[in-house]
Design goal:
The chain has 343 residues and is of the alpha/beta class. Helix content is 25%, strand content 17%. The chain has nine helices and 14 strands. The strands form three sheets. The chain has a ten-stranded mixed sheet with strand order 1-2-3-5-4-8-9-12-14-13, sandwiched between helices. It has a two-stranded antiparallel sheet with strand order 6-7. Strands 10-11 form a two-stranded antiparallel ribbon. α2 crosses α9. It is globular, with a radius of gyration of 19 Å.
Length: 343
């Protein structure tokens, strides 16, 4: 049974409060032009407090990793705006993205945020001796990242022999969907740093499940948000994924960046090759697609850590602007969800 988890203050990250950062993005009035609709934080004023998060305990197959995850139920009485799975960066955890999770929850979404294997509360038994009480993520290799996104084995997905981190969460969400608590017709993935590559890998594997007599077994993802995506991490690469469907042309994709990341630009440029007339970039005056027609978005939200250093992906994802007229990652994600759902 899920166990209620104590809510941390929204500013509390995995290593305590984040460094002072100041997002200097465009005003929300401009966001309404960039994407269909807007998701102002004023929308959540005077609403009841969202439910407390639940801690989940799931187990992967066949390697039996005890996976910890946190579920933030939607406060919306008429059902969630969308169901969102957050995937953190290398060395992060659900706690690093909790400010984003809480903001999306307050915006009406049902959110799940796991600690990926070798991170946070999901340690790997085989690494305990080598890592001791230290950070296991420093010892992870390509095969570990592949396992995070694995789903395979057999013709029936419900009986699949290989169920990695994201697949376990998907199966848990499917069970909740059968009870009417979440809506898998409105399922979005948000990946940060390495998590963007893991989310992209799983999205392709999810779409590859063949239909059966009772209907489709995959293709659950409605939209994908990549926050400062890491192109290559210890041999685990996104490069081979970008030309594949549904990433290539079918799926709505938004890339969020401070504007300083070469990897974010490279990923966007690769996507643009297969969507030459359907991309929108808020840095460009003459993007080929209108905001209501684009399937590929690049949103730059200039922000830096104290001392002018580039922000790590999870810290950027967790930024919240105190000024409701300023764009921040949570507002951008909510706007993207609303825009793509309305089409």
């Amino acid at each position: 049974m899920p166990v209620p988890a104590r809510r941390r203050p929204p500013s509390q990250g995995v290593n305590g409060p984040p460094k002072t950062c100041s997002p200097r993005g465009p005003a929300l009035a401009l966001v309404a032009v960039m994407l269909l609709g807007s998701a102002s934080r004023a929308d959540t004023d005077d609403k009841p407090a969202p439910p407390e998060p639940e801690r989940l305990s799931l187990q992967t197959m066949p390697d039996a990793v005890d996976l910890a995850a946190w579920y933030y139920a939607s406060p919306a009485e008429d059902g969630p705006l969308a169901t969102v799975l957050l995937v953190h960066d290398l060395g992060g955890s659900h706690a690093a993205l909790e400010p984003l999770a809480l903001a999306l929850q307050a915006g009406g979404c049902a959110v799940v945020a796991p600690d990926l294997r070798g991170h946070g509360k999901s340690p790997l038994e085989r690494l305990k001796a080598a890592a001791g009480e230290g950070d296991q993520s420093k010892l992870l290799k390509r095969n570990d990242f592949m396992a995070m996104a694995a789903t395979a084995g057999g013709r029936l997905r419900t009986q699949s022999a290989v169920r990695g981190d994201l697949e376990c969460i998907r199966n848990w969400l499917k069970q909740r969907a059968e009870k009417g608590e979440v809506d898998m017709e409105k399922f979005y993935l948000v990946g940060s740093g390495l998590g963007a590559a893991v989310a992209s890998t799983w999205t392709i594997a999810d779409a590859a499940w063949p239909p059966v007599a009772s209907g489709p077994q995959g293709g659950d993802v409605r939209g994908l948000v990549l926050i400062e995506p890491a192109l290559v991490t210890r041999g685990f690469s996104m490069t081979r994924l970008l030309p594949l469907e549904p990433l290539r042309t079918d799926l709505p994709v938004m890339i969020l960046s401070t504007g300083d990341s070469r990897d974010s630009q490279k990923v966007f440029d690769q996507f643009k090759r297969s969507r030459p007339n359907s991309w929108f970039d808020n840095r460009e005056k003459n993007s080929p697609a209108k905001d209501t027609e684009a399937s590929l978005f690049f949103l730059a939200i200039p922000a830096r850590a104290a001392g002018g250093k580039q922000l790590p992906a999870d810290q950027f994802a967790a930024l919240r602007s105190a000024d409701p007229r300023r764009l921040d990652p949570a507002t951008a994600v909510l706007t993207f969800i609303r825009a793509t759902l309305d089409r």
